[in-house]
Write a structure and sequence with these properties.
16 helices; Rossmann fold; alpha/beta; about 300 residues; about 45% helix
């Protein structure tokens, strides 16, 4: 008997919106944690689908975020049903919370959790929370409190130490490891594709070619250089107005969404004690083979 998907809910997302979704056989579901290469993978898929760097619409319109409560379920479903191109759909839901269709590809991008955490810290300052709350609840948000924000070092230590059930906070360290451990356990399934953020950064051309092969895209050889260039971090930042995930106008600065993209910042910024604590915690949250692949050290 098929296992029902787990339901994940937050103030901004609800994975139950996948229930009843009409898949097509060639759909691609992009499942990542926040700030782990979601938009990068959406862009790569867009380039493979359209085979040109001149996309026909903003990236968030071409690749909707299905379980984000800022947009109505009916509106997202209608948008996806109307698409004539091969669909590639964004979600931050782990694969155990998404219906698994036998002819759909599921791409999971993994990033070193400490690098992801640094990006999360900076992203928090770029989000208009009042706007998000208004869009998701329909109620005006009271003025933001002006409490002092912790330093990055303080916040990173709290993020490493936070004890929480994974499903209650998927962008916590336990939540990240839950998402990746589930994908790792499925890595040999023919329709599940694992991608490491650092591999994209190290050799974007090779990773794009690998993805094209796995996902069944045939791209003319003369178009490859332009497509790879369009997927570089610098080029995407230059095109932030079209590529940033901001259909609800919840980003204060679209350009700031593409802040850095570098790997290794988390390990540099964390103290020796924080790194030791991080290693201790992750050893209890994920299998050793996954940690070896994830940490690359």
């Amino acid at each position: 008997m098929p296992v029902s998907p787990v339901r994940y809910r937050s103030a901004d997302e609800d994975s139950a919106r996948w229930n009843g979704f009409g898949f097509r056989d060639d759909d691609i579901v992009i499942s990542t944690r926040s700030k782990s290469g979601t938009t990068w993978m959406q862009m790569i898929c867009a380039l493979l689908v359209f085979r040109t760097s001149s996309l026909p619409a903003p990236l968030a319109e071409l690749s909707p975020w299905l379980d984000w409560l800022v947009a109505s379920r009916e509106g997202v479903y209608a948008s996806l049903a109307a698409k004539q191109h091969r669909r590639f759909i964004k979600t931050h839901t782990p694969l155990d919370g998404v219906p698994l269709h036998p002819r759909v590809h599921y791409v999971v991008v993994a990033r070193h959790p400490l690098d992801m955490a640094v990006s999360l810290y900076h992203q928090a300052a770029n989000l208009d929370r009042a706007r998000m709350r208004q869009l998701t609840t329909g109620r005006p948000e009271p003025p933001e409190r002006t409490e002092p924000r912790p330093s990055l070092g303080q916040w990173l230590g709290s993020w490493i130490d936070r004890e929480v059930a994974p499903g209650d906070a998927l962008d916590s360290l336990p939540g990240v490891m839950w998402h990746l451990s589930d994908a790792w356990a499925r890595r040999r399934e023919p329709r599940v594709v694992l991608v490491h953020y650092d591999d994209l950064a190290a050799d974007l051309d090779a990773e794009m070619r690998r993805l094209a092969d796995v996902l069944g895209f045939d791209v003319p050889a003369d178009r490859w250089p332009g497509l790879v260039q369009a997927a570089t971090f610098d080029r995407m930042r230059d095109n932030a107005e079209l590529l940033a995930p901001d259909t609800g106008r919840v980003l204060k600065d679209r350009g700031a969404f593409f802040r850095s993209g570098r790997s290794g910042q988390g390990r540099i910024l964390a103290s020796a004690d924080q790194l030791a604590r991080y290693r201790e915690r992750t050893a209890g949250l994920a299998p050793p083979e996954l940690l070896t692949w994830l940490h690359r050290d």
